[in-house]
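The methods section describes the discrete structure representation at length, but only in general terms. An entry of this sort, consisting of the sequence and the corresponding backbone structure tokens, reads as follows.
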Amino acid sequence: MDKLTSIVNNFNSISLSQMDKVKLMKRTDTKYAFHFSKLSLLLSKLQHHYLILEIKKNRMQSYRSLYFDTVERKFYLDHHNQRVNRNKIRFREYIESKLVFMEIKTKNNKGRTTKKRIKVSSIPTSLNEIHHNFIHEIIGKELDVQAQQWINFNRLTFVNILKNERLTIDVNLNFSQNNHSVEMSDIVIAELKQERMSRRSEFIRISKDLGIHPMRLSKYCYSSTQLNPNLKKNRFKKKLLYINKLVA
């Protein structure tokens, strides 16, 4: 971790207010999963192409998220069953920024992701009228959802110096539900966020050189399979086997 910290400190930084220019609330996302042992080399090769977000002298931010779903796990099953139009509902605390939002992510049949959010005072375990109204406004109907699981992690956030592109790299993942928790310290989840998908990204080029390839992986869906073994997951089988090989 000392080596990783040293590499992270070599990046030029960007402030939270400057990041507002690259919000990309409507975007295309490309996800990657790889072993932690490749992270230092990857970052060292990204230094001249990206700025790193720094908040109150912290370059690695802490995130706490509580995901909501129906009792039947509609959002999980929509993803598993490859429905092209689907949603996710979560509350997320950005610890260093001392901000908490209710966030709804929608994905359409063109593969574009839209995120809408409202500021809240804290993460609730049940929804109030304001929350329900927000769900109806964004999704267009009433949904009976409840708190399902926590997903906590540390994040490095980067902005491409020349392109309208953001990159997040998540480490130290932890999933928990009731008294059951799962650690994923050996796995890194990266997500490239672009206005339009472009393979001219420096991250795509460098990750390919390092044998890191795109993988459609939802932290919510993966954590659901680990915390609820009886959930339907046959369409995720290849992804689960891939992750198991990474940590073997």
Observations:
- The two ends are 21 Å apart (CA to CA).
- The chain is about 25% helix and 35% strand.
